[in-house]
Amino acid sequence: xxxxxxxxxxxxxxxxxxxxxxxxxxxxxxxxxxxxxxxxxxxxxxxxxxxxxxxxxxxxxxxxxxxxxxxxxxxxxxxxxxxxxxxxxxxxxxxxxxxxxxxxxxxxxxxxxxxxxxxxxxxxxxxxxxxxxxxxxxxxxxxxxxxxxxxxxxxxxxxxxxxxxxxxxxxxxxxxxxxxxxxxxxxxxxxxxxxxxxxxxxxxxxxxxxxxxxxxxxxxxxxxxxxxxxxxxxxxxxxxxxxxxxxxxxxxxxxxxxxxxxxxxxxxxxxxxxxxxxxxxxxx
Length: 284
Prior knowledge:
Layout: H1 3-12, H2 17-48, H3 54-68, H4 73-82, H5 87-107, H6 116-126, E1 137-146, H7 157-172, H8 177-184, E2 195-200, H9 206-212, E3 221-225, E4 229-239, H10 248-262, H11 264-277
Antiparallel strand pairs: 1-2, 1-4, 3-4
């Protein structure tokens, strides 16, 4: 569960450092708490003898693959392998997560029904997150600094990162991106000022795409770490993939989110009581 978060943080913070450590610690703590709550709720689910249909699990895995890995199944399976998980093991984890959602819904099924305006408001707020991420298209300027300078055999990754940081500083001070790209960038787009137009999200690495697609247009992002070196990016245009209409399937999901918000305080009291009674052993 931490793998995609960790990959994105490593890309975003090449030097790691306090900010990286704080964000990683927060992400890990949230996931550990989610896993604890999941086990508590699974116990009650098993006592009910309920089940989750396999096709629903398949749909959820496809959604995660689309949003976290740009729809790239090979990248998804690569991450599973790196995390020492089989597809069957991941299906089981996904099933457990969905059980938690189902149990929470059942626990508070008596919540007041969502009003039409509440449903529309919630839909408008989450509509961008429901889009087809694989259809995102982005244009950006890019400066690439390789981890090793072929024209300077004495260069080190540390020296190259320092150079990338200096370039990012110059850009933040108002220096022209295109001119700096022509001077420093070491890729095929340097001569055109680093401009790359209408690049499908699926052509980018998942962690790189997650950072730059949602960055404000015109914002200097980086330096970002990749396997070959360091990248500085300025998004110039983003066209998001289409979002689904508020049909019956989407409406059901949105209604569930509204109900969950209405009962969040009640749920926290309910789960906290069970946390206090549970025997929890966290092993690092």
